[in-house]
UniProtKB/TrEMBL annotation:
N-terminal signal peptide: none
Presence of the UniProt keyword Zinc in the record: yes
Domain Helicase ATP-binding: 28-194
GO biological process: DNA recombination; DNA repair; DNA replication; SOS response
Known catalytic reactions: Couples ATP hydrolysis with the unwinding of duplex DNA by translocating in the 3'-5' direction
Cofactor field: Mg(2+); Zn(2+)
EC number(s) recorded for this UniProt protein: 5.6.2.4
Protein name: DNA helicase RecQ
GO molecular function: 3'-5' DNA helicase activity; ATP binding; DNA binding; four-way junction helicase activity; hydrolase activity; metal ion binding
Superkingdom of the organism of origin: Bacteria
Keyword DNA damage: yes
Family: Belongs to the helicase family. RecQ subfamily.
């Protein structure tokens, strides 16, 4: 595990988010490890966070290249609203001197500049007067003539970047086809293995959300069809222990628990064994999975509901990173939502509304008769087709079966 574990409290305390979205976690982990990266993520995916969070955590100032003054000022406002020490150096700013002094004093997390400025030798000299944490190149497709918005000034950035070879580079864009991506990486000196390409869709994951009747039996049957490694998320330490024991007994497979109450050595050993195994199942609280890179997880199961669609997406997203067919199955009960709603009463009022909205959105996904993937992707601002053919609702046509089932019950009553 890397420094990504330390990112979670910052995510919560500084940005107010419960979890990463999509592949933010992967990008942040790379940057925290000092590895240069091109992140291609859809608009609204939250690309800003992937440099702002490392900017807060890493020593020194993060220099952000952004093509438009209006964009920079938007970013500046929202960063400052989160208490991040940020400034812009543009022709529209009157506080140049203060900004320069703050930078030299190491009192800035973020410094936004336009590419014209960044490419000037005098600016390079200025930058060498204090430590740098990261170069973030926003709208990085502008560097490529293949991209849809080529800016010659972006071409000149390389001189600045190469003057600080030890500072990692994070290039960000929402739109880059294959040719543009390759060009951006070559232009900015990002290694070939530095690409994180993220639409929200994970087509190899089959989603299913089912009523829970007997979770041990339901999980046993899931595991019978999936001999590969899997993660089962349960709500409490006690349930984790109990499920791990019962599943091991029922399936004869290697099943281990993971939660914060375990002896640290046992916990680390269970995690290491899981990462190395081609068949182990780990039963865990949501604490499990942060910063773990295991590409061949064949299923993720939830016993009980997660906290939000974002949480669900992040946790299920740990399945099938290798692109092979994988399953995400949630076993829920109506009581789960009742319990979660009761817990809202204890939350302070400022957060209650947003938490309730998150819970409602999740309930929408759980209760829908529509394509699960479509609901999920729409939640993240995408415009997916109405049917994916790879979720329980698409495969089992619940609209039809539910009605016949209901009719049968009514008739036999
Ligand atoms: P992009 O630059 O990729 O288009 P932004 O960085 O502007 O996206 O972020 C889009 C929105 O998503 C912002 O309102 C931001 O606060 C929100 N956001 C970012 N990360 C998260 C997260 N982990 N959880 C919830 N909301 C997030
Ligand atoms: Mg953006």
């Amino acid at each position: 595990m890397s420094s990504i574990a330390g990112a979670f409290p910052v995510l919560k305390d500084v940005f107010g988010f419960d979890g990463f979205r999509g592949r933010q976690e992967e990008v942040v982990a790379r940057v925290l490890d000092g590895r240069s990266t091109l992140a291609v993520m859809p608009t609204g995916a939250g690309k800003s966070l992937t440099y702002q969070l490392p900017a807060v955590m890493r020593e020194g100032t993060c220099v952000v290249i952004s093509p438009l003054i209006a964009l920079m000022h938007d970013q500046l406002r929202s960063a400052r609203a989160n208490g991040i020490r940020a400034a812009t150096l543009t022709s529209a700013d009157a506080d140049w001197r203060e900004t320069q002094e703050a930078f030299r004093a190491g009192a800035l997390d973020l410094l936004y500049v336009a590419p014209e400025r960044a490419s000037q030798p005098a600016f390079r000299e200025f930058l060498s007067s204090a430590p740098l944490s990261l170069f973030a190149i926003d709208e990085a497709h502008c560097v490529s003539e293949w991209g849809h918005d080529f800016r010659p000034d972006y071409r000149l950035l390389r001189g600045m970047l190469d003057a600080f070879p030890q500072v990692p580079r994070l290039a960000l864009t929402a739109t880059a086809d294959k040719q543009t991506r390759a060009d951006v990486m070559a232009q900015l000196g990002i290694p070939e293995d530095g690409l994180v390409l993220a639409g929200f869709d994970r087509p190899n994951i089959r989603y299913a959300i089912r009523h829970r009747d007997n979770p041990v039996r339901q999980l046993t049957s899931l595991m019978a069809g999936e001999p590969g490694p899997g993660i089962v998320y349960a709500q409490t330490r006690r349930k984790v222990e109990e499920l791990a024991e019962k599943l091991a007994a029922a399936t004869g497979r290697s099943v281990r628990p993971y939660h914060a109450g375990l002896d640290p050595e046992v916990r680390a050993a269970n995690q290491a064994a899981f990462v190395a195994s081609e068949e182990m199942v780990i039963v865990a609280t949501v604490a499990f999975g942060m910063g773990i890179d295991k590409p061949d997880v064949r299923f993720v199961a939830h016993v009980g509901v997660p906290k939000s669609i974002e949480g669900y997406y992040q946790e299920t997203g740990r399945a099938g990173r290798d692109g092979d067919p994988s399953q995400a199955v949630m076993f829920w009960g109506a009581g789960d939502f009742a319990t979660a709603r009761q817990r809202l009463a204890e939350v302070d009022e400022a957060r209650r509304n947003s938490e309730r909205a998150r819970l409602d959105a999740l309930a929408g996904l759980v209760e829908t008769a529509e394509c699960r993937r479509a609901v999920l992707l729409r939640h993240f601002g995408e415009h997916p087709p109405a049917s994916c053919g790879n979720c329980d609702n698409c495969l089992e046509q619940p609209g039809v079966t539910d009605v016949t089932e209901l009719a049968r019950k009514l008739l036999s009553a």
